[in-house]
Amino acid sequence: MFYGKVVAGLLGLLLGGPIGLLVGLFLGHQFDRGLRRTMEAHSPENIARIKERFFETIFLLLGHLAKADGRISRGEVDHTEMIIRQMGLTSAQRQRAIELFKRGAEPTFDVAACVAEFQAVCGRQMALRQTLL
Predict the structure, then answer these.
(1) Fewer CB within a 10 Å sphere, N or C end of the chain?
(2) Quick one: 61 and 33 in the same domain?
(3) Residue 110 — φ and ψ, nearest 5°?
(4) DSSP code at position 110
(5) Sign (positive/negative) of CA torsion 123, 126, 130, 132?
(6) Boundaries of each Co-chaperone DjlA N-terminal domain copy (predicted)?
(7) Are residues 5 and 33 in the same domain?
């Protein structure tokens, strides 16, 4: 993307001469960077990556929380099954959710790493962060 640099550079040149050109190029560059980030954030690939990370994080943390007291109760399993039904998961997605739940319940599960990965991928998505909480 270079449109911001061209437009802002020309405006800067017209309004402020050579110094205005430099300021315009700098501001145009900042605009182009922001526009590129916005476009990347809304790309189909990034949206798919966010959805996958959100899905993984939900079931990993559900498993971890269910096992926090030492054992997984029937009520915790029922609650997880209810979430699976509410999400309308396919059979394959349901199986993956169960695998993630079990992985989150393992003693070696690193909750801090899980949350950090979620934050890295989904951190700017406030609605997802609030839903996860």
Answers:
(1) C
(2) no
(3) -100, 95
(4) -
(5) negative
(6) 59-124
(7) yes
Confidence grade of residue 36 (pLDDT, cut at 50, 70, 90): confident
Amino acid letter, residue 2: F
What is the length of the chain?
133
Q: How is residue 39 written in tokens?
A: 């476009």
Residues 37 and 84 in one domain: no
Angle at 30 between CA 40 and CA 22, to 5 degrees: 150
Least confident range from 7-16, 63-72, 83-92, 119-128: namely 119-128
**What residue has token string 């690193």?**
110
Same domain, yes or no: 36 and 52: no
Question: Can you read off the two tokens belonging to residue 35?
Answer: 């526009």
Distance CA 103, CA 80 (A): 14
113 and 66 Cβ atoms separated by less than 8 Å = no
Residue 106, domain extent:
48-132
pLDDT at 88 over 80: yes
